[in-house]
Design goal:
By secondary structure, the protein is mainly alpha-helical. It has helices at 6-12, 15-31, 42-57, 63-80, 103-126, 131-153, 174-192, 198-210, 212-220; strands at residues 85-87, 96-98, 101-102, 157-159, 166-167, 172-173. Strand 2 and strand 3 form a beta hairpin.
């Protein structure tokens, strides 16, 4: 069995990945000191985002372009749903981008969307799991886990509605599960089919008109090759 040299291992990943890990380490050290009182959550999510993007770059060289789409998607989501959340970091302070939308949440969405689509692709292609199941696994393994950590561990936000039921294990309102099952899967389908590109949407319209049933089945991944 061959072992790579340390130099070879370092070259496997983008320098941004290592820079992100170093940033996370520095934050972890500062958090154990009196400086923690002036730390912002952005100081943690920025290196986390860099490390995620740098890691995925080894497997997806277009991750930087996709990250711009993820940023825009996250920003749109935060602006449209701003009334449903109240931000106020109880563990760390927040820097706000627009009204009460923290910059950290835009970094959060870049990280989560990047990790979600990478995880879906890995499970679907490398582990040979069909697309519908891979999408469900991604929703529960990435989206809901990230939501649970942000809400229960970092306590970055509160929900502006009364939960009718809390999802076991995640301790999240049922509304959140429904939202991710719908919007999370729409996101994964959109990225898989590259529907964020206007031309692809234009091409999809006549295809839907000609054979709506077959097209929908292809989009959701029911028709596997």
């Amino acid at each position: 069995m061959e072992y790579k040299s340390l130099k070879g291992y370092l070259r496997d990943y983008h320098p941004i990945f290592w820079a992100g890990l170093i940033g996370i380490g520095i934050f972890a050290f500062l958090y154990t000191t009196s400086v923690r009182n002036v730390l912002y959550l952005e100081f943690l999510l920025l290196p986390i985002t860099l490390s995620v993007l740098g890691f995925i770059f080894k497997y997806d060289r277009k991750i930087w372009k996709k990250a711009a789409v993820y940023f825009a998607t996250g920003l749109s989501w935060e602006v449209l749903t701003e009334a449903y959340w109240t931000y106020g970091g109880r563990s760390l302070s927040l820097l706000y981008f627009y009204k009460d939308i923290p910059i950290s949440m835009l970094l959060y969405w870049m990280s989560i969307f990047s990790l979600a689509f990478f995880s879906f692709s890995y499970v679907n292609r490398r582990m040979k799991v069909n697309k519908p199941l891979a999408q469900i696994l991604t929703v529960f393994g990435v989206f809901l886990t990230a939501e649970a950590v942000g809400f229960n561990v970092f306590r970055v936000w509160d929900y502006n509605f009364n939960p009718i039921f809390l999802i076991p294990v995640y301790s999240l309102p049922l509304h959140i599960l429904v939202a991710y099952l719908i919007l999370g899967n729409i996101f994964l389908i959109s990225m898989r089919e590259k529907l964020y590109k206007p031309q692809n949407v234009i091409n999809l319209v006549p295809e839907l008109a000609r054979n709506p049933s077959k097209t929908v089945r292809r989009l959701v991944g029911v028709d596997e090759e």
